[in-house]
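Consider one such protein record:
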Amino acid sequence: MLVADRQPMFGESTAQAIGRHPAQEVVARTVDGYEAITLIADTRPDVAVLEIALRGLDGLAVLSAVVRDELATRVLFITQASDPAAAYAAVAGGASGYLTKHADAEELCHAVATVAAGGIVIAEEVQHTLDEGIRWRARTQEPRIDDATREILVLTAAGRTVREISGQVHLAPSTVKGRLHSLYKALGVNAPTAAVAEAIRRHLID
């Protein structure tokens, strides 16, 4: 296991708790995100136990590097951060676990073992934060639509039928329908008029 925490004393206590488990061994410890990436690449631990806040480079960036480089190391966050955006970003980014620093040694070792075995651990007190993060993401992240889909939406707003739109954008009617349904899902609506109204509200079309 690797432990990375910007607070040396907490990192040490985390490493000691893990090290006391007969089936777990800490192979490296650091306070710095850049060094964490190097150590993970060099030592290939089963699990990297990371704080979100690290020196140099944060834990989310370390997770991103692990995923980018397709390393087998699984990431477990243990953090004081209660930011919904951070919780969502960690889980959406590929973390296998997310605990708070209220977890005791037994909970921590169980989480490490579960993550190492391929499981996922989300602390109960994090669930509410994660739900808030999902709602935050829905409010702040606009759907990305390409030019063809935007044209389909504009033509829909003009009252064109699927067949008429198909002929104008040179796509099969089934493709036009598929793009519209994908857009409905992204906008959280279920009808053409609602999609147009929501797209205008979000300034996706004029």
Remarks:
- Strands lie at 2-4, 28-30, 47-50, 74-79, 97-100, 121-122.
- The chain is about 55% helix and 10% strand.
- Residues 15 and 26 are 6 Å apart (CA to CA).
- The mean pLDDT is 85.
